[in-house]
Amino acid sequence: MTRSAKHYDMVVIGSGAAGHHGAIQAAKLGKKVAVVERSEALGGASINTGTIPSKTLREAVLRFTRSGSTDHRISASDLALRIEEVASREVRVFESQFRRNDIDVLRGDASFLGPHTVRVTNEAGEQFCDADHILIATGSRPAHNEAIPVDDVSIIDTDTIRRLRTEHHVLTIVGGGVIGIEYACMAASLDIPVTLIERRPRILDFVDQQIAEALSYHMRSQGVTFRLGEEVEEVTRSSEGKVCAKLKSGKQIWSDALLYAVGRQANTDSLNLAACELAADARGRIQVNANFQTSQPHIYAAGDVIGFPSLSSVAMEQGRVAVCRAFGVPVVSVPELFPYGIYSIPEISFVGKTEEQLTEAGVSYEIGIAHYREIARGQILNDTSGLLKILFHRETRQLLGVHIVGEGATELIHIGQAVIGFEGTIDSLINTVFNYPTLAECYKVAALNGLNRINYSGEPHLANS
Length: 465
Known about the structure:
The chain is of the alpha/beta class. The protein has 12 helices and 22 strands.
């Protein structure tokens, strides 16, 4: 032990999604737990700069645009106020949960002094913790590029996107990943012309291609211009305040503001990992095994700090599982069933396999599709472009994947997640009565559509539409 070090069963570094759930799980197991947080507010990027702010912003934009108000434009202060309200409430929830579970919250910067010892430094000085187990859940921040001088005014990153003024007339976004796509959709909904630059030949290359193409079509119809297969060489700002993105192809993209949204950098550079013989890669990420253990068996890592998929929902599960594994508590976690949610406009969600994955694996599969325009609820919501797509095995009819683009996709996906989880077939969807009118009916329509495709080939069937 280091001098005057307080002993804990578990020290969690970071209070974001992974750290929060990990700490609560450890406390529920009767362990003495401390959480180290360097920011004033608990919750990490998930609550304060990332997931909650961006989804709150999206909802505010949607409500404004759907209200049909033409008297005034939504202001940046309106949006910022709503984000602050939601985030502050979530922070208070975290504070209450930590307090009720007797978790010590240590404010300051954490760094290792040895494999079991953590130093916490703040303006008042320093204190030391000795722990049997340590969970690194420090999250991530926007990655920067020297060629793109972020100034938090007209050249911004995803942490400062809330400073974007809604009176901006033209926006450039560098990065066609999840974050770039989400903000491009929000801006387009506010009638801000957007040019999105992505070095890959397609957006969201981990999403089922048909779903990604449907989203691309919708975004283009909303005024988003795609520059795919392009890479930014330099970004400059004119004396008038305009921003120019110079591409390697020689093109110049001018706008009022530029959002740089290419990747995340894990927050490990100040942890002094060398003191416990750990190392991070160029993006600051720490390698772990299936149990979320680092090369030091008693030190675990979870969330953005270990990389893809960098989803808050997944980070929560990783933190919980890591702590259970640390204390030898049996736990079942099935990453193959993790749902993905992308809060674009319209939103996307999927679970299970994509067509590309099944094709590569040589699986005999069939598809079934339900268009929202076929569903009464879709007409009521005025979402006639959405669709739900299922993938199932031709012989066993077992459901293998569900892919949705449209209103409520991130809520609707959990039905498919449950069916895949218990290895259900499309017959279970056909034989289920769904509330009417609901979007959930899409599952039955898609299953019948898939069955018709099999029937067309003359194969035996149990039902028909």
